[in-house]
Design goal:
Blueprint (H helix, E strand, L loop, with lengths): L6 H17 L4 H19 L14
Amino acid sequence: MEKWDYKSLEWIHQAREENYKKTKKLSPAELVKKTHNATDTAIKAMGLKVVRMRDQVHTH
């Protein structure tokens, strides 16, 4: 692994590399499902409330 000047950059790149190794064989649909499940778990663990936009109107 590359040498980084800052420990925070080293940590970020290490985390990204580990995540890539864990997910590189997943299809896009599998990756989205895995991400949604992890997000839902984190939301529940932190006691957060999900706010969804309803009937969004897009004008261009």
